């Protein structure tokens, strides 16, 4: 009788530890997220399932072209690409990204540019967006979706405060046939 009671207690403890460990991992380290919409095509597809690394920005600052998940003003979580860092001047002209006056290639858009007529990204400067300033404000990021014609991003909602970032995402795990690590 005592042996059964001890065995039951040991199983209960193991289960409680497993649940606590899963909760810590889920809420503080990594979380699953589902891509909702077409704003990151062709890089990400609607209903792709990904892992968000919540530790990524506790270690260091976001890097240009990282794909991040953040709390958007509409009480939703968005997935977008970091284009502008604090202090950057951002401009698009002739379907080319200019950061601080230097042209940047965006190879992740090449496939999509071949499929559309006209420019994928309409020309703009930061001053012509809700940001309304010449540079990205300190403590904030300018983000855009890869599907530039159909993305609600910093051109519409303004810059994103660093404290609104949930984490960086780079692993698509579902559907299994499309599982990969983003570059």
Automatic annotation (TrEMBL):
GO molecular function: signal peptidase activity
Reaction(s) this enzyme catalyzes, per UniProt: Cleavage of hydrophobic, N-terminal signal or leader sequences from secreted and periplasmic proteins
Localisation per UniProt entry: Cell membrane; Membrane
Keywords from the UniProt entry: Hydrolase, Protease
Stored InterPro entries: LexA/Signal_pep-like_sf, Pept_S26A_signal_pept_1, Pept_S26A_signal_pept_1_CS, Pept_S26A_signal_pept_1_Lys-AS, Pept_S26A_signal_pept_1_Ser-AS, Peptidase_S26
Classification via Pfam families: Peptidase_S26 (PF10502)
Membrane topology: Single-pass type II membrane protein
All copies of domain Peptidase S26, residue ranges: 8-174
EC number(s) reported in the record: 3.4.21.89
Superkingdom of origin: Bacteria
Main enzyme class: hydrolase
Main location: membrane
Family: Belongs to the peptidase S26 family.
PANTHER family: SIGNAL PEPTIDASE I
Name under which the protein is recorded: Signal peptidase I
